Amino acid sequence: MILSSQRSERRVWRRGVCRLLVISLAAGMLAVAAARAQQKPDHSMGDMPGMDMNGKGMGDMHDMGDMGPSMAAMAGHMYMTPMWPEKPGDREKAEAIVAQVKASIERYKDYKKALADGYVIANPKLEQPQYHFNNPAHIKAADEAFDPTKPSSLLYRHTPTQQYKLEGVMFTDDPDATLEELNARIPLSIARWHEHIKFCAAPADKVQDYHGEHPKFGMFGSITTAEACKAAGGTFYPTIFNFMIHVFPYEENLKDVFSMNDDIPHNPKDRLMAH
Fold first, then answer.
1. Which of 4, 259, 266, 250 is nearest to 105 (CA)?
2. How far apart are CA 25 and CA 193, in angstroms?
3. What pTM did the predictor assign?
4. At 116, is the secondary structure helix, strand, or coil?
5. Sequence-ordered alpha helix ranges (H) in the chain
6. What ranges do the domains of the chain cover?
7. What DSSP assignment string belongs to 196-225?
8. For each successive 10 residues of the chain (275 residues), what is the average pLDDT?
9. Are 237 and 17 in contact (CB under 8 A)?
């Protein structure tokens, strides 16, 4: 009961932090991510710093070439779950989840139906590689239970023929979820969850640093410790947002279904057209 109470308190605190950060920072962070994705398409994965949080090692890095430039640019502020050895039934479980996702989001190919069902477009006026349509009720419910038919977010891409073309979903979990709990949702032998960590929010007079060439603050910043953040006048958050995982059910194999590259189309036909 004590552990449950502590987790509940941390959850409430983080939700408050998330609301403040989303309101004040999300647009700037996404703009920087999109710009960096275009400027540095060959970001080296070999230079990624180690990621560790709450005593959990960041896991095997040998297969991280799938991470897109936008996400790679946040490497110092990411925790990636390690890949576990595959067990009998893992692949079948993952495939079943993907099938459920694909069937349940069919109606949302019409984005207006997503809006009618409670999804909200994050930063609709900002040009983005990928648009998140977030469902607050689903995000809240996901802290307690996993429902493949109720994703926390729908992922859309702007194509030459469609303003919002559905390409996948994002699921979330409690920010304090254990590896065992994440594995119970989607096997860690098949996919990796991630969490945004070590965030130093800039003081009010330095928010423009988020957009700088060599930022100190934010998800692309050089500051990754509470001490350095305090010395710079910022506010440090060990963890922001929940655990997350993207699922692209229109891809043809599981590696691409659970891709960490948000900078490319995740419908094979659209990807061919892009080239």
1. 250
2. 23
3. 0.77
4. helix
5. 2-39, 69-72, 90-104, 111-116, 136-142, 179-185, 226-231, 254-257, 268-274
6. 2-40+65-274
7. EEEEEEPPGGGGGGGGSSS-SSSTT-S--S
8. 47 40 38 40 32 41 58 82 96 98 97 97 84 93 95 92 92 93 97 92 89 86 93 90 93 92 80 58
9. yes
